[in-house]
Design brief:
Low-confidence stretches: none
Shape: elongated
Structural class: mainly alpha
Radius of gyration: 30 Å
CATH architecture of the domain at 56-106: Irregular
Helix content: 25-40%
Number of helices: 6
CATH topology of the domain at 56-106: 30s Ribosomal Protein S18
Largest sheet: none
Distance between the termini: 79 Å
CATH superfamily of the domain at 56-106: Ribosomal protein S18
């Protein structure tokens, strides 16, 4: 009679879960970016200044491939051209800048690659 009170669907609803195993791993704390519940919740918000194009501000019209001191500011230590989102240079100047860097590399004013470690 005890078997008649249990319905066959009741046993199929809950699958067997081994003891000690949880469905989700425990929380490791707030995410690195802050966000809701993060470390900066009640504090001051982080404000990032808008980057402005150095060439537009200083009214530099031509980017010369021979101006190595200027071009070296836009080349990383590894030898790569630094992208716009990091430097803040506008699109037309970034295009001219990359062409000037490539010209300077071809005549050995700038290195193609950084130092080998």
């Amino acid at each position: 009679m005890a078997d008649e009170t249990k319905s066959p669907t009741a046993t199929a609803e809950a699958p067997a879960v081994s003891e000690g195993h949880t469905q989700r791993p425990p929380s490791r704390g707030p995410r690195p970016g802050g966000g809701p519940g993060g470390p900066r919740e009640g504090g001051r918000k982080y404000f990032r200044r808008k980057k402005v194009c150095k060439f537009c501000v200083e009214k530099i019209e031509s980017i010369n491939y021979k101006d190595v001191r200027l071009l070296a500011q836009f080349v990383a230590e590894s030898g790569k051209i630094v992208p716009r989102r990091l430097t803040g240079v506008c699109t037309p100047h970034q295009r001219r800048l990359s062409c000037a860097i490539k010209q300077a590399r071809n005549i050995a004013l700038l290195p193609f690659a950084g130092r080998a470690m």
